Amino acid sequence: MAGPELHLEKNTEGRLRIVLTGEWRLTNSLPPPQALEGVLSGGPDVTLAEFDAGGVTGWDSGLLTFLLAVIDTCTLKGVTVNREGLPPGVNRLLALATAVPERQGARRGGARAAFLERVGSAVIDLWRSLCDMVAFIGETFTSLVRLFTGRARFRGSDMLLILRECSSDALPIVSLISLLVGLILAFVGAIQLKLFGAQIFVADLVGIGMVRAMGAIMTGIIIAGRTGAAFAASIGTMQVNEEIDALQTTGVSPMDFLVLPRVLALSLMMPLLTVYADLMGILGGMVVGVFGLDLSAMEYYQETKKAVGLTNVWIGLFSGFVYGVLVAMAGCMRGMRCGRSASAVGDATTSAVVTSIVSIVVATAVITVLCNVLGI
Fold first, then answer.
1. Is the same domain home to 77 and 202?
2. Would 115 be classed as within a structural domain?
């Protein structure tokens, strides 16, 4: 098969004849459309350009791309284009391609944004996120006030279902993780305490560590990945299906009906789950103390009872309550701010988990500093 060839014939009457022959396919080396510019610029002025494609034996989108570039060049030069000499199929495709002009700015620019522009955009997005978070906290507080004044409406059956999802349904994974955390703390402490013959103080390490911080932290992280993500996914799906719009249309506040019961349920159940996690962690440490350090169960129990005071217990319970509020708020906020597409639900779920875990870490640091300042 002959390759694509281009011949330009210009006469003194201002007519340009564009002769196309051969196979015009993308797999072949197509002539550059820039060759037309030199012909249009030199010699007498060209007023009419016409095509002769009788010698074209085959073509694909490569020919269309070439012809579009030629037509654009002629239009810029003020040259009239006669397309009668092109094959009928090519004419129809060109008519479709040029029926609607390209919208300005629709084509994505190839240049990357400057560094300062990207930093500024990130700062603006962060500021908007903070404002959105503060607004959501205010809406939640307003909904809580309506609850205390008897004007908030939500179904009791929904509240009981959410309570079950936040409590009994989470016990298996909380049991496993807390038991393993207690084992890890005991093993790490035993390695160093054995050097001084102070194996009995493993009970102090595990007891204080679990009750004061680790029990609440691990429970909060588990609930963030389990319940917080479920909150974001369920509310986000309702947002996609326009169910939240339907609630607003019927005069029901989505904050009262969807967000408030979830925040209340998780903030009530997290302290109880924290106590359970503390017990499982202490049990894990006891397993190491009894079977790895030759301690009796009674010795371990008495040492734990002596080391762990009510102050540590209350700090852990308060931390669990704070983590529960943070996880519920993050999950509900990401769900309520979800977009209208299916992929937006996944993005909201991921964002809810990340926000919850970061909030837990920040809250832990703040609580630790406050306890140190207050001397407790």
1. no
2. no
Amino acid residing at 148: F
Q: Are residues 183 and 37 in the same domain?
A: no
**CA-based nearest residue to 199, from 102, 112, 134, 285:** 285
DSSP class of residue 14?
S
Question: Are 88 and 167 in a shared domain?
Answer: no
Helices then strands, each counted (H, E), the chain:
15, 4
Domain shared by 82 and 169, yes or no: no
280 or 106, which is more confident:
280
Q: What is the DSSP letter of 250?
A: T
Residue-level pLDDT at 276: 93
| For residues 235-240, average pLDDT | 88
In a domain, 149, yes or no: no
User: For position 108, what pLDDT does the model report?
Assistant: 59
pLDDT, tens digit, for every residue of 303-323? Answer: 888 888 888 899 999 999 999
Paired with 9 in beta bridges are 17
Residue-wise pLDDT for 329-343, tens only, equals 999 988 888 888 778
Residues 66 and 212 in one domain: no
Instruction: Give me the chain's average pLDDT, please.
Output: 84
Containing 54, the helix (H) or strand (E) segment is strand 48-59
pLDDT at 97 over 90: no
Q: Residue 60 is part of a domain; what is its CATH number?
A: 3.30.750.24
pTM of the predicted protein model:
0.68
The per-residue DSSP string of 75-133 comes to: HHHT-EEE-TTS-HHHHHHHHHHTSSPPPTT-SPPSSPPPHHHHHHHHHHHHHHHHHHH
> 187 and 285 share a domain?
yes
Give the domain range for residue 206.
155-374
Phi, psi (deg, nearest 5) at residue 338:
-70, 150
Does 362 lie in the same domain as 241? yes
Task: Please state, in angstroms and rounded to a whole number, the distance separating the CA atoms of residues 223 and 320.
Answer: 11
Percentage of the chain modeled with pLDDT above 90: 20
